[in-house]
Amino acid sequence: MDENTEIEFRTTGSSLLNPLSDLVGVPLDQVNFIVCQVFGLAAAVWFRLYLTPQFTTPEVRHAFAALIGASFITFCFGWYAVHHFPIVVTHASVKPQNTLCSYSRYTMVVSIGYLTICQVSRVIIFNYGILSTDFSGPLMIITQKITLLAFQVHDGMCQKQEKLTEDQRRLAVHSKPSLLKYLSYNINFLSILVGPCSNYKDYLEFIEGRHVQSKLRSVKDANSQQNGWDKIPEPSPVKTVINKLVVCVGCLLWFFIITKAFPIAYNVDPQFISEASFITRLGYAFISIQAARPKFYFAWTLAEAIHNAAGYGISGMDDNGKVSWDLLSNVYIWKIETATSLKSFIDSWNIQTALWLKRVCYDRAPYYGLPLTFVLSAIWHGVYPGYYFTFISAVPISFAARAVRRNFRQYFLSSRQLKLCYDVVTWAATQLTICYIVMPFLLLAVEPTVMYYRSMYFHVHIISILAMILLPSKPRGSKTLSHAQHSNNNLKVD
What we know:
The chain is mainly alpha-helical. The protein has 3 domains: 182 residues, no CATH class; 93 residues, no CATH class; 140 residues, no CATH class. Helices cover 64% and strands 1% of the residues. It has a two-stranded antiparallel ribbon with strand order 1-2. The radius of gyration is 24 Å and the shape is globular. Keywords: Acyltransferase, Endoplasmic reticulum, Membrane, Transferase, Transmembrane, Transmembrane helix. Pfam families: MBOAT. It is a multi-pass membrane protein. This is Lysophospholipid acyltransferase 1.
């Protein structure tokens, strides 16, 4: 038992903070990660205040961002950091025009292939004693950026603009990035450890000092007929950053107090399965999954705060006329916890990864867009069997959820009371379904996954298949739906 624990918590990075790890009782890899992110927060403030675009050239900002990012991955992963630099090869392999139009496909195959090789080696090295932070994490983010940029370069230099969607036209890149820009975009300290993946054009505007102007284009001086960009001060991110850091502290407290009290592995404890009732097992699964989420909330919210502290992340103005800093939001916690449909949950969880999947796969696949997107997501996450159980199971469950929603939702829109009942029931169904789907993702291996699904009698799979078979593809009560929507246009519709 002690040997397994030692394997689980070993790290390939610096051991400088080992005394701190022993003192607080937190694995060294996690201590290294948190310290780097805290340092990254301080570096982001310094970057915004002392390397401003008004007094610093873009080349200097690119270089500093890349150098600090490279130091982070070296500190956290030691010699394994070399796995993060084949990006130079993908950049150098692109020749003007003759290979550029096949660049996107080549980059996707090579990047995903190399990531998969690293994921396989991770399984062999750690033998399921998976570290919370290992070298494949940053590589996953770099893979997103490399492939996304490749398709955006393809859209800008090889595709006819009329064949592109509005989103693809807006994000198209019309020239090959320099090596410095390419490195800065991929390994900058803001996103190297946990992301999120941002668009190349947005990042370039941030480095060059055009981010505020681009995102607040509709803002005009109320006392002037001109835009007056020089008169508009750069919005301060201080309040937004503080709010997000408060969320991070809350997530940490939740993790240390609640998460450790409800381990995921207990869901497949043989004694628990044999002695507890189905309802008890269902309830524990719900609680343990709820308890596991805050560690993701913490990592993503802290990463977003770091970007905002550097002055990056403005998306525009909100409904109250205030600057909105959610361009790089990776999670909407409230929307997740109150989601009443599978789609609402997915749209609010790991948002930037979902956008990456949409832009490189779903929007471009000629056929079977949804299944292919789930398969790509599983491959990107890694080679643990539990990942494939999760994402492959999600395909029929997603289709079944759509069928149920299409056929039944219309009957609950005639009054607020019925709509409230519908929301409560669908919230419970959504949260329990999510628990069922993602449990293999956390259990990782085949044996505990099958054991869990047997203990749950495969009930979600069975219900989903029956729903797909029995429910019509188009609801019969379309007239009822039209009437209900017309008479209840003031009701909140998800």
